[in-house]
Amino acid sequence: MKEIDLSVLGMFSGKGRDPQRIDELISELERVWKEHPASRLGQLLVSCVDGDADKLFYMEDEALLEKLRERFPAAE
After folding, report:
1. What is the pLDDT along the chain (76 residues), one digit of tens a residue?
2. pTM summary value
3. C-beta atoms surrounding 37 within 10 Å
């Protein structure tokens, strides 16, 4: 199991990021997960980074939202 570099924890202070992004990302994740209920949360997220789970740690929320929408487009 890889260790997390704890020096990056300052990035979680909440400063500089729009809190509104949370609702939009969670709503999209809810939509995707409900369309694929047999999938585990980790599977859905890792599929957005082509299997490289380490990328998730540094990925901006807007980029993850975009990847979710690309990988799992809404049904028409």
Report:
1. 667 666 666 656 656 788 889 999 999 999 999 999 999 999 999 999 998 999 999 999 999 999 999 999 988 7
2. 0.75
3. 6
Residues 6+ apart with CB under 8 A from 47: 71
Q: Which residue in 73, 37, 67, 39 sits closest to 52, CA to CA? A: 67
Determine the Cα–Cα distance for residues 27 and 24; give it in Å rounded to an integer.
Answer: 5
DSSP element (H, E) containing 58:
helix 54-58
Q: Give dist(CA 32, CA 6) in Å, integer.
A: 31
Domain coordinates of the chain in residue numbers?
19-71
Residue with tokens 């980074």: 49
